[in-house]
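Page 47, continued from p. 46.
Same chain as before, 208 aa.
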Amino acid sequence: MMPGFSQPNILAFVVAISFAAGLNVYATAFSLGLMARLHWVELPVGLDLLAHSGMLGVSGCLFVIEVFADKVPGFDLIWNALHTFVRIPVAALMAYAAGSQLPPGAHVLATCLGAALAAVAHGSKTAARLAVTPSPEPVSNIALSTVEDAGAMGLSWIGVHHPAAGVATVGVLAVAGVGLMWWGWRLLRQGVTRLFHRDPTAVQSLGR
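Result:
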């Protein structure tokens, strides 16, 4: 196990970077890789690949693309839906790599925890987008996306330098995220209900 990363610290690190990846997986990978490449931090052994030139180039380019794509009202919903199949699996993979030197039970726990926290972060992000996308101005989308990008990079930094503070931060954000997902689900259900009340044939068409 690398110096400075005891078993509890690795688990705390996984908590922070997994939630960050659920918000913006490219920003998380690029931030961690860049900090390691500049020798500002030393990552757990399994994440050495993030500092490789090729990986930095790919994650950096994808981060730039997401910076713009995630701020376009309407398209951001499609982008986020597609990234359900990117953020959660990659977060689980990063958690698996970070915990490569943990005992088997803790390794499995770290991997499952990574996937679960990324799912909460991704779900809360999607719920927030459902709330702000109907607004006629793009400022809400841009502001929300910018906060998410900054949050992903900030959590990545905190996860390396202050793992315990990262856990506390993620705990608060996760509770808020679950509440946001519940509220988003209610909002979506109410919208569907109103649609069916206006057009009863919509229910029949769904059954065809």
